[in-house]
Amino acid sequence: MARINISIPEEIINKIDGYKEVVHISRSGFILKALESYFIEVERKILEDKKRDAYEGILSIREMAAPFFNGWDSTSEIRKLRDNRWAGDKK
């Protein structure tokens, strides 16, 4: 494991020391767990942003394609395909 030297304000050190006593881990262990939790939070935010961007892209494509499918009911078509497939399975 690598060793690093960082500066942390005294008030944060005091908070860490208080919490580390509650959860019975070392200062380094507490900071490591805090960093791991932060990484998970950042990764979740990145995923949420990607999902939002993908959804906005889908809506944009849908709006551009709408004039070509005027009056077409996609839900009805999907139901027909599903019902035909299931009818074939029952034979």
Structure description:
The chain is an all-alpha fold and about 90 residues long. It has one domain. About 75% of the residues lie in helices and about 0% in strands. It is built from three helices and no strands.
Quick structural summary:
The protein is mostly helical and 91 residues long.
Main sheet record: none
Count every beta strand, where a strand is a DSSP E run of 2 or more residues: 0
Secondary structural class: mainly alpha
Order of helix and strand elements from N to C terminus: HHH
The whole-number mean of residue pLDDT values reads: 91
Q: How far is the first residue's CA from the last residue's CA?
A: 63 Å
Q: Are there runs of 5+ residues with pLDDT below 50, and where?
A: none
How many H/I helical runs?
3
Give the total of domains.
Answer: 1
Which range does the strand content fall in? under 5%
Question: Roughly how many Å is the radius of gyration?
Answer: 27 Å
Estimated helix fraction = over 70%
What general form does the structure show?
A: elongated
